[in-house]
Amino acid sequence: MRVHDEVCIAHCSFGWNMSEEEPAIFVCNSGSIEGSPLPTCTPLPCDFSFPDGLGVTHDCAGIRTAETCTASCNVTGYTYVAGNAAEVFTCQPGGSMSGTSPSCQRPLAMARLGPLQ
Q1: Which of 5, 16, 104, 113 has the CB geometry, 3.0–4.6 Å to 12, for a possible disulfide?
Q2: What is the domain range of residue 84?
Q3: Superkingdom, according to UniProt (predicted)?
């Protein structure tokens, strides 16, 4: 509960960029709040800890705070190791991705056999 004439400041959370130069300031007056409009907050891009690994691809380019993307085994010739599947990654406020890359494997090439004798 806010008190009469109490001042509040609104700003963007960590991982978000405020478009305005200054934070929004509000004053509580007789049960209402008066002041500047709320700030416009835009998510910051993630730029490290992307999914990686042999055969792993992802759709994480350009991802921003709180957005998700998928890492999978979509490189030609690669499949998931048993028990693995596509994995979801989330862009964290500090600019890093959280998630676990799937384990991918390349199928063993069939050995070429000579004629039977």
Answers
A1: 16
A2: 57-105
A3: Eukaryota
Torsion sign over Cα 109, 115, 116, 117: negative
* Tokens standing for residue 103: 């384990």
Contact 54, 64 (CB under 8 A): no
Domain tally, the chain: 2
Q: Is residue 81 part of a domain?
A: yes
Give per-residue pLDDT as tens, 104-116.
998 765 334 445 4
In the beta sheet, which residues pair with residue 87?
A: 71
- For 83, residues 6+ apart whose C-beta sits below 8 A from its C-beta are none
Are 48 and 96 within 8 A, CB to CB? yes
